[in-house]
Design goal:
This protein is 47% helix and 16% strand. The strands form two sheets. A five-stranded mixed β-sheet has the order 1-3-8-5-6. It has a five-stranded antiparallel β-sheet with strand order 2-9-4-7-10. The chain has twelve helices and ten strands. 33% of the residues are buried. It is globular and about 60 Å long.
Length: 296
């Protein structure tokens, strides 16, 4: 099974299938109107892997989501930036919950000048993808989105180019919210520790199925297991071993609920010696057997 195939994907093709996409331009999916997660991302009740950049701005109500195994609360004017290969799940949403949603590929604006510090901003998003900008900035976000939608009310010769430049304006706006200049007094040591955490999570998403030892990830980070544990536990409140176990359990739950694979096949896919070892591991961390979880 290919990397990340344990999870369904959410990205441009999935949004297009929903029939909520008004703008027909390659590399961009802009939903016609604010929608609930249940309408825009029905698959995300189980963990999914993002296959595009997805900007979500909460307009009404509240929700709880998981992004790369960390839980975030969304409420009015909360922005969530989901990058490709991020693990994402909707845990709960209130009645009347609505988000403005846009998914895009950086290829769409690759020939236009991107924010100079975009790589640093991406690193910051990987550490903390959720923030609450001031109401005025959120209003500007909505205004740009509405301008993009209005381009498709009537045909226009340069319509696609206008939309691309509006997307670029939106990226500059959002980038300023995540800008490293806002944390220029952040100690260098703290930045190095956050880089260790960011790289650990990236490695975990890549290797969770075959490797469950902290030493494997520490070796990849060129640090000792003890030092890796110290940094990650201090930054997140959870040890590397806890993160590894949670990632495996999350993948197992997704396959149990979201596929027709047998429990034996899932155990093999997650590199357990046999179904019995997998069942013991799953029960230890969830309080139920894989079959009991499937029947819930």
């Amino acid at each position: 099974m290919a990397k990340n195939e344990s999870f369904k994907k959410i990205g441009l093709p999935e949004f297009e299938k929903l029939g909520l996409n008004r703008i027909q331009i390659q590399g961009l999916a802009l939903l016609k109107r604010p929608v609930a997660f249940s309408e825009s991302m029905p698959a995300a009740t189980n963990p999914v892997i993002a296959s595009a950049n997805i900007l979500l701005l909460c307009k009404e109500g509240n929700a709880r989501v998981m992004c790369n195994l960390k839980e975030y609360s969304l409420q009015r004017n909360t922005l969530l930036f989901v990058l490709p290969n991020f693990l994402f799940q909707v845990l709960e949403e209130s009645e009347g919950f609505l988000i403005e949603c846009i998914a895009f590929s950086f290829d769409l604006v690759s020939d236009i000048r991107l924010p100079e510090d975009i790589s640093q901003i991406i690193q910051m998003v990987e550490i903390k993808p959720c923030l609450s900008p001031p109401a005025q900035q959120c209003s500007e976000f909505h205004q740009i989105i509405e301008l993009m939608k209005e381009q498709y009310h009537t045909p226009a010769l340069y319509r696609d180019s206008v939309v691309r430049y509006l997307l670029l304006a939106l990226l500059h706006k959002v980038s300023s919210w995540f800008s490293p200049r806002k944390v220029e007094n952040h100690p260098a040591a703290a930045q190095r520790d956050e880089e260790v955490y960011r790289r650990f999570m990236s490695l975990l998403l890549k290797h969770y199925r075959e490797r469950r030892e902290v030493r494997f990830y520490a070796d990849k980070l060129f640090i000792s297991p003890k030092y890796a544990s110290k940094i990650i536990t201090r930054l997140t409140g959870k040890s590397p071993q806890s993160w590894i176990q949670e990632m495996v359990i999350t993948a197992a739950k997704s396959m149990i609920k979201g596929s027709n694979m047998s429990i034996s096949q899932i155990a093999n896919e997650l590199n357990f010696a046999n179904q019995s070892f997998f069942g013991t591991f799953f029960r230890k961390h969830t309080g139920m057997s894989p079959l009991e979880y499937r029947q819930m």
